[in-house]
Structure prediction request, 205 residues.
Amino acid sequence: MTPWKTLALRLCLAVGLLQAGTLAAADLMPTAREREQPIDIEADSFSAEREGWVAAAGGVRIRQGDTQVTADRVRVNKQTGEIVAEGNVVLIRRGQAATRTERLVYNYKTGRGLTPEIDLQVGPLRILARDAVREADETYSLQETIVTTCTNAPGHQHYHLRGRSATMRPNEYVALSGATPYFMGVPFFYFPYWRREFDEHYGWR
Prediction:
């Protein structure tokens, strides 16, 4: 490795250590108590569909407790609790954007959710996954997962950790299986298992 690449690697990892040390984990979905609260939906237009579904389009905003979802269009079934949000979906939790995706499927009664792609910001950690399932116990199962503190856009990050699969509990940890760290797009190591506790402040190691 050339001297400038070695220096750049040390600088990037040092920034990662400092940023990760300030982590404050956030809840990403309503708690069981919050899910008992009424759901409020605002949109430019509404239309009734079959089997209890209602479609909303244009500036859609859904609120439940401290959770808010905005999207271009949403379908809601108040009988089953299912919500299907599509187009520029942003999940806002306690005033902070927690998830950005193109499609979010979520049951506001049971707490179970599925989204084809997920982009989470938990403190300084950015967690991206190709597929994500939120179970009723508030554990996330992720596939093709990336974890980084680099603020560049996906595909242009200076460094990141990529795993085949992962599990995450928003207030506790993220754990990757088959994890490979990348620097400037080049893989340089392999971890069969990597875990980061959100309430620890030791950074990356």
